[in-house]
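Standup notes
- DV: blocked on the single-chain target, sequence here:
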Amino acid sequence: MLVFSDIRPKTAFVGETVHLHCGSDEIVIPRVDWLYRPSPDVTAHFIISAGNPVNGDFNGRSNINGTTLIINNVQEEDSGMFICVEDTRFRIEHRVNLTVQGKLSD
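- DV (later): unblocked, structure below
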């Protein structure tokens, strides 16, 4: 059973490190899968599967800490929908819509 939870917006600037959290800090989730969907007309695909990074879009820039997806040196083309799926019997999805903007002015 798949249960859709929420969509949270997140904005970052080019070059920053982003931390995308899955679910709630109060609930312990044993493991999550992270998927990435760059645009609505593209099928989502795995970034993190069974707790392990999958090669692809982020060229070694992504990592996972617990259930938090960490992406270093984000670029504008990294914008899109990130989907976390809890590895529980309910398979709850949490979505983060990341928007990466040009460099912050000095």
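- Follow-up: The first strand starts at residue 3 and ends at 13.
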